[in-house]
Design brief:
2 copies of one chain form a homodimer. Chain A is of the alpha/beta class. Chain A has helices at 40-46, 90-102, 107-123, 136-146, 163-173, 194-207, 219-229, 233-239, 257-266, 274-279, 287-292, 312-327, 335-349, 382-389, 417-430, and strands at 2-11, 19-27, 30-35, 56-59, 64-67, 69-74, 126-131, 149-153, 180-183, 185-188, 211-215, 247-251, 269-272, 297-299, 366-369, 395-400, 403-407, 410-411. In chain A, 38% of the residues lie in helices and 21% in strands. The interface between A and B is large, with 73 and 73 residues.
């Protein structure tokens, strides 16, 4: 499909961040042109190409085009657990409510639930997910059939899978299709034996690739790691060589000075998950310090079992709101930083540098923000307002890889939402 | 209009809180019936009335009816300041960016901006606003023309108005129409001289009515009050007799043991505004302690200048999320408590006990939550899920006083939203 968006405001997320007015042309999977609102022939001559034959021309009516959000940490199929067991202490919740069910979930369950999560991502303007869950094969199938970009990361731990399976997945799934990739990782220090961590490290060294894991999400996790190894999870991962080729951590709340040094030295990304960290009473990540040390921050929703929804707008507000609270400074963590985190930083962490900003040649992974909603008016500062006032209600259109998957509340992912809800409810019923 | 909702899930917010399935009948401004899904004739005989002639029958398709949210603290016309000056230190923001403009705003400006705020309230399922701003006469006009329920509270301070004007407004505006009322109040201790506070106290005693004001929003405010009077704002207000007939405070973050005692003794409501308190780095209110002491808590958005939007879903999540963080306990402040705060507690504080729950004889102030959105699926616990996963996107319909003002994204308030945006932008332009 060749699509021309015109009469648009555009936030390309290229630096310096500013809103322009103009057009955006999509040819197939990629952006052919983004820029000022000149006549078509003039634009065509400028980019040295003919005007494509348009399958569709979309009058944006002043609405805003921007890169889709990158949800840089999620367990998508955990939508099953949404509001299944809220307001419970963390440990009991995990051990009594979550783990027993996860032990019985099939690859088919995960497939159906992942498809349902796609609906929610699209309503929230998410165009790529950094997903860690049980059966990456069926997850990738689900995403691919829906047209959703995704990066799988291994959540290997003492309960599975075997390291050989992870390696096989890495080799097979990483290149499976243009929408999906696979990264090495582990669930967390506290769920992996030293023997297992050493095997993963050997694989990281063999393939010279980044490594991601839950890292320093709770005080207890860090305390117990110190008791076991005399050092923090970050220091342990680094000592084992897991961070030699970059990567990062999910949550990253309880870091010490040495940890910050390692993040800087290795170019690691701190993926923050503020809603989950509040709801599970884990804490608040030190966002301002990451920024002042030049450590990139990305944003994830975490799974809907803990947070309980896949809403990047809520996460964005929390990243800056909680930083302002923590720093006792209303000027802390500028909203524009938050927009970078939710788009370009997430893309970089996920290895998706081809869909980070709106520019010629990049994949057309974009969203349209409805400026005709009252929460966007009057128009004082559009970019900041997305962070401070934006909501899912403002997502008018979500396009991934050049295809419109969501528009005006309707989905085009090859599935009837009601059927996906029925299946999800049937799965929930089975585990009651 | 007589309207029959059927095929509905219903959360009446009567105790015990549970979701029923059934019908809800609206006759004129009030609820005629709410309950199980029996044949019409059977229901009619049960309530001892004939079946009304329906102007409209609405198939809810399993969507949820519940009382509208009560936004228990706002400065509605401050939508003008939305994202005008974010990420600035609080004091400079107020003194350089807000106060100078407010000094020049006309009653007509406030009228237009209040109308624009109504659009946003409706998208967020808010059916009544506890509003404090400059020109209550024009504010009430705006709300009344739109069909929005509102309670005005005086924000009197050293810069105006004269106490006689407040008394006149109290007498005239309080009974102006069935949608609007007016309460005595003051902006805050730090903006009122002792002489002024004493005059307000005399009026509270004269009319034996509740009193509301900003109270203990920042550490500085409380510290300076102690320096001036050797006591906290709560203690000062109580000493002056301002709290003799109840009322409450907005924000209520920095309270000491004596303050809690006064809140209990006087039956005061603590109105919490978590998003504003984060964004302006004010702090986190002690919600769990209010609950354990039996002090009612209500929820407000505050003005869009500070928070920056009128979104009760964001506030609800924050109330419990921040309490869990503060208490280091994932079981803290159950979501059902939050639903009470956002509905019945707000209504009680605002004197709107006739539109707190869905029950026969109550005003028909209600919303329909779209259960067919992915963030509501699978259906594990609807009531809790509204707090943890709900968003404005789920508000399918907002009815106030028996009239549907918002449905499927369309407004029916006698104004074209685009015209209101134009006016708001013109006002913003004038003050640039």
């Amino acid at each position: 499909m060749n699509i021309r968006f015109y009469n648009a405001r555009i936030l390309t997320m290229e630096e310096p961040i500013e809103v322009i007015t103009g057009q955006l042309w999509v040819e197939g999977e990629r952006i052919l042109y983004v820029g000022s609102d000149a006549p078509e022939a003039e634009i065509a001559s400028k980019i040295g190409q003919d005007v494509p034959v348009w399958d569709r021309e979309i009058d944006c009516e002043g609405n805003l085009l921007m890169p889709g959000f990158k949800d840089a940490h999620a367990h998508s199929a955990m939508v099953l657990f949404r509001s299944l067991a809220d307001d419970e202490p963390l440990q009991g919740w995990l051990e009594k409510r979550i783990f027993p069910v996860e032990g019985q979930m099939t690859g088919q369950d995960v497939y159906e639930l992942t498809k349902m999560s796609v609906l929610e991502y699209l309503t929230s303007g998410v165009t790529a997910v950094f997903d860690m869950y049980l059966t990456p094969e069926t997850i990738i199938d689900a995403y691919t059939e829906c047209g959703m970009r995704n990066v799988q990361v291994s959540g290997i731990n003492n309960f599975g899978p075997e390291p050989e399976v992870m390696e096989e997945r890495f080799l097979k799934l990483n290149a499976k299709n243009s929408l999906s990739s696979y990264m090495l990782g582990a669930h967390a220090e506290y769920t992996c034996s030293m023997e297992l961590l050493e095997k993963i490290a050997a694989m990281v060294q063999k393939y010279k690739v980044p490594f991601f894991a839950h890292n320093s999400e709770t005080e207890l996790e860090v305390k117990e790691c110190f008791e076991r190894y005399g050092m923090s999870p970050t220091q342990l991962f680094d000592k084992l060589g897991l961070y030699d080729f970059g990567g990062g951590g999910y949550h990253c709340i309880y870091l010490d000075d040495k940890d910050f040094e390692i993040f800087k030295k290795r170019g690691l990304t701190a993926v923050t998950n503020p809603a989950s960290n509040l709801k599970l009473a884990s804490g608040i990540a030190p966002i301002s310090r990451f920024l002042s040390e030049g450590i990139p921050v990305a944003i994830g929703t975490d799974g809907a079992g803990s947070n309980n929804c896949l809403d990047m707008f809520r996460e964005m507000f929390l990243v800056t709101g909680l930083a302002k609270y923590l720093d006792k400074d209303a000027a802390s963590v500028d909203a524009l930083e938050v927009l970078r985190m939710a788009t370009v930083n997430g893309a970089k962490a996920m290895g998706l540098t081809d869909c980070d900003v709106l520019a010629e040649g990049k994949y057309a992974d974009l969203i349209m923000i409805d400026m005709h909603q009252p929460n966007m008016q009057p128009i004082n500062n559009i970019a900041k307002n997305i962070v401070y006032s934006g909501s899912k209600q403002n997502v008018k259109l979500t396009m991934i890889n050049g295809k419109i998957l969501y528009e005006d509340g309707r989905f085009d992912i090859g599935e009837d939402p009601e059927e996906l809800y029925k299946k999800a409810n049937a799965i929930a019923e089975r585990f009651k």
